[in-house]
């Protein structure tokens, strides 16, 4: 109950901020929804598809509507196993998206607040920690991505401070501040001091290192479940930087470094085990997509920051806003990292003051150290003086800095690392290229500015610590402690000195404290106001996608009783997309030969390239769609493409004399022409000269039932994608599913009348589920075991 009360006011304040920023977007009308480009163009249709079939009692493992079929549950967009995603089932979609984003922005704020206020032990005031959380949640990285519609990126990034918060106890349980035992137990040998300090540290965290590892595993697993797993990788980079600096600061032994690294590795391994139910299907899918192409480095370095981009520290709209952006590609959202002018200037001021103070302190320590060495005799050394806890050597170098200073440097290094990698080839040393050469995952990570989450995280932490520096604890904050620490000084016992101390602490300190409190509040108000105004710039309500689609066009596409496909043969920027989005067929029941996704099955992509007569892969030109299909090729018939949608400005069929194509509709205002392919082949047909009959009895995402009649045995061809998990049955007997044309499903059907069934049975989910369950059992065992050990201690 005390813990809940402790967070009541921060939660209430953040809730008010969220309400102000989102405004009416939290309660949109029935025909409007918060604007996010990927939401309106892609994610919305995936949620509609799932909800539609779930309402029919069907769990859709497979998506037959895009790219001639593709895995649905294995697609990272879906991440249905992540609990907040269930909002899209419980609430209307136009409401669910606003709340899903708002909840994760709030979660990001609370995570940074908890990190600054409790786990790092930086002595931050609650106000400083609260402001740091607000800056993180309303930073350009989050708010600009609302407009971009990067729902999964926002969700995954919101877990970053929580993961760091969870991993800190692993380090703290092994690394103890040396001055703790010296001040608390000066009469004990150093071995007992270290034992005492470690025991107290364990009791403070209420768990042994094993428990800390388990907690970290669960929180990291939740970040993985949230989607866009690149954020988890970047989060672990932040954890690595913080851990390295903490270990260096405490001058730990190599054994301790290995122990900490092993415990962090164990936590990551357990998190991956929990995530196996999603990871294995996604990896199976990933290994068969166009993401497995070996691409040159310039593809990965696309969209790197320029040195001029650093002007975003002061001017978030240096190259224009999300509508007028003219800076480095691809768009505004990928380059946004603004944390406020006031916050940035506050950080710069604290850094300058900190450098000046440490230069002076270093000079004073050197003078005091030389005197201490002379007094201690010729046999003494600096190491001996350090081990003895001599004040002259306290704080010498990085190892002697306060906890706040160590974490200030950690946040600074994280932000610096994020900026450096984001610059890509524009940096003095291309760190992105080094990572690309050494880390396999970087081969699949495009756009280096994705690392700007580290900049937002690091700078937000610095803002929180800098806010505390305005009102930091000094000798004025505890006059009794100051007096007691000097009670051994005989001069302090004189009545005149007591009068002077009374005047000094009662009058001067009160003035200083009030002034610093006022200044801290003043700065906080400016930061809050600036960040709220900035964040509101990206909140807008627009009509739901159905409102902009062409109703007559959709009516034509849906008029056939048999399943035929449409080919939306244009780029993502073309005007016809407003009439019929690439993925809109998932809602309307219209099958599309293409779609909009980064995860396109490679065999299908290569088939389109081959149909176009391409001599090399088109991946450098088309990485979210299939290449534009040459509609005059016979592949258009074989792919079951009956309708072809072209923009008027790029229309190879216009005024063509080819009798295969017939103009059905032209809309000048919407800039498209719709054609019918009169020689289209059915979805399922017999190969060769066999003119047998095929009738579709049932066509659902996970199951297809056909009735066939043929005079001779033959291969039953289809334009359905071949993929692991699809099983074929002839009259109830399981048969081999053949991979035809290197991309499509086929099977042999004997002569006569038969019932054919295709069933999608993704056993990979079952295997992943078993691994996740075993991991949960192992973690439960380790948790109980650590509980017993703690009780015995």
Could you characterize the architecture of this molecule?
With 793 residues, the chain is an alpha+beta fold. The chain folds into three domains: 2-30 and 74-536, no CATH class; 549-677, no CATH class; 684-761, Sandwich (Immunoglobulin-like). The chain is 51% helix and 11% strand. The chain has 29 helices and 18 strands. The chain has a five-stranded mixed β-sheet. Strands 11-12-18-14-15 form a five-stranded antiparallel β-sheet, with no helix packed on it. Strands 10-13-17-16 form a four-stranded antiparallel β-sheet, with no helix packed on it. Strand 16 and strand 17 (744-749) form a beta hairpin. Residues 176-184, 202-207, 382-397 and 473-493 have low confidence and may be disordered.
Quick description:
This protein has 793 residues and is an alpha+beta fold.
Q: Overall pLDDT, averaged?
A: 87
Count helical runs. 29
Q: State the separation between the terminal residues, measured CA to CA.
A: 27 Å
Unreliable segments of 5+ consecutive residues? 176-184, 202-207, 382-397, 473-493
Helix content: 40-55%
**Lateral strand order in the biggest sheet:** 6-5-7-9-8
Radius of gyration: 32 Å
List the domain count as a whole number: 3
* Biggest sheet details: 5 strands, mixed
- Tally the beta strands: 18
Global morphology: elongated
Strand content bin: 5-15%
């Amino acid at each position: 109950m005390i813990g809940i009360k402790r967070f009541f006011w921060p939660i209430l304040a953040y809730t008010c901020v969220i309400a102000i920023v989102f405004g009416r977007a939290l309660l949109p009308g029935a025909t409007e929804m918060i604007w996010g480009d990927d939401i309106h163009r892609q994610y919305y249709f995936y949620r509609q598809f799932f909800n539609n079939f779930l309402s029919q009692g069907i769990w859709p493992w497979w998506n037959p509507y895009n790219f001639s079929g593709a895995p649905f549950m294995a697609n990272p967009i879906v991440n249905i196993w992540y609990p907040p995603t269930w909002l899209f089932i419980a609430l209307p979609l136009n409401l669910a998206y606003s709340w899903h984003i708002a909840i994760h922005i709030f979660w990001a704020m609370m995570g940074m607040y908890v990190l600054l206020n409790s786990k790092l032990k930086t002595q931050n005031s609650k106000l400083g920690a609260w402001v740091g959380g607000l800056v993180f949640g309303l930073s350009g990285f989050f708010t600009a991505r609302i407009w971009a519609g990067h729902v999964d990126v926002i969700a995954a990034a919101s877990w970053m401070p929580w993961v760091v918060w969870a991993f800190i106890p692993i380090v703290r349980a092994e690394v103890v501040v040396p001055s703790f035992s010296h001040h608390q137990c000066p009469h004990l040998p150093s071995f007992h001091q270290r034992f005492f300090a470690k025991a107290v540290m364990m009791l403070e965290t209420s768990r042994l290192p094993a428990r800390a590892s388990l907690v970290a595993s669960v929180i990291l697993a939740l970040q993985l479940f949230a989607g866009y797993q690149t954020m988890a990788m970047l989060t672990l980079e932040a954890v690595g930087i913080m851990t390295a600096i903490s270990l260096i600061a405490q001058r730990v032994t190599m054994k301790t470094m290995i122990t900490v690294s092993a415990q962090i590795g164990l936590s990551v391994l357990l998190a991956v085990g929990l995530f196996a139910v999603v990871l294995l299907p996604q990896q199976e899918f990933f290994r068969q997509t166009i993401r497995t192409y070996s691409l040159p480095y310039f593809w990965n370095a696309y969209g790197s920051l320029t040195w001029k981009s650093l002007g975003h520290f002061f001017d978030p709209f240096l190259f224009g806003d999300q509508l007028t952006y003219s800076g480095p590609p691809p768009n505004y959202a990928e380059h946004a990292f603004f944390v406020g002018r006031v916050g940035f200037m506050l950080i710069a001021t604290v850094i300058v003051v900190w450098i000046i103070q440490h230069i002076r302190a270093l000079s004073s320590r050197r003078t005091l150290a030389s005197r201490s060495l002379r007094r201690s005799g010729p046999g003494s050394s600096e190491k001996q003086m350090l081990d003895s806890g001599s004040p002259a050597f306290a704080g010498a170098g990085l190892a002697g800095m306060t906890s706040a200073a160590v974490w200030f440097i950690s946040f600074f290094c994280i932000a610096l690392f994020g900026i450096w990698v984001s610059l890509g080839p524009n940096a003095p040393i291309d760190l992105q290229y080094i990572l690309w050469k050494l880390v396999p995952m970087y081969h699949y990570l495009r756009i280096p500015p994705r690392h700007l989450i580290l900049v937002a995280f690091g700078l937000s932490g610095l803002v929180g610590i800098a806010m505390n520096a305005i009102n930091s604890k000094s000798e004025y904050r505890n006059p009794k402690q100051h007096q007691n620490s000097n009670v051994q000084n005989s001069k302090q016992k004189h009545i005149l000195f007591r009068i002077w101390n009374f005047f000094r602490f009662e009058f001067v300190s009160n003035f200083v404290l009030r002034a610093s409190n006022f200044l801290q509040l003043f700065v906080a108000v400016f930061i809050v106001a600036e960040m709220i105004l900035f964040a509101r710039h990206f909140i807008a309500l627009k009509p739901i996608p159905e409102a902009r689609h062409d109703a007559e066009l959709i009516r034509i596409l849906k008029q056939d009783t048999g399943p035929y496909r449409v080919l939306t043969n244009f780029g993502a920027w073309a005007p016809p997309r407003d009439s019929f989005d690439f993925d809109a067929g998932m809602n309307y029941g219209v099958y599309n030969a293409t779609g909009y996704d980064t995860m396109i099955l490679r065999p299908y992509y290569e088939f389109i390239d081959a149909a176009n007569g391409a001599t090399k892969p088109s991946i450098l030109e088309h990485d979210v769609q299939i290449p534009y299909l040459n509609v005059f090729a016979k592949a258009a018939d074989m792919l079951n493409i009956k309708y072809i949608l072209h923009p008027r400005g790029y229309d190879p069929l216009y005024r063509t004399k080819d009798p295969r194509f017939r103009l059905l509709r032209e809309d000048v205002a919407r800039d498209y022409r719709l054609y019918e392919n009169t020689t289209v082949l059915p979805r399922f047909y017999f190969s060769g000269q066999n003119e047998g009959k095929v009738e579709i009895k049932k066509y659902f995402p996970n199951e297809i039932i056909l009735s066939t009649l043929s005079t001779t045995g033959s291969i039953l061809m289809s334009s359905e994608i071949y993929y692991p998990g699809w099983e074929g049955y002839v009259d109830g007997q399981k048969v081999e599913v053949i991979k035809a044309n290197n991309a499509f499903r086929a099977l042999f059907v004997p002569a006569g009348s038969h019932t054919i069934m295709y069933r999608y049975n993704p056993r990979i989910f079952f295997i992943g589920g078993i691994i996740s369950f075993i991991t949960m059992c192992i973690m439960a065992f380790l948790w109980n075991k650590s509980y017993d050990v703690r009780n015995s201690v």
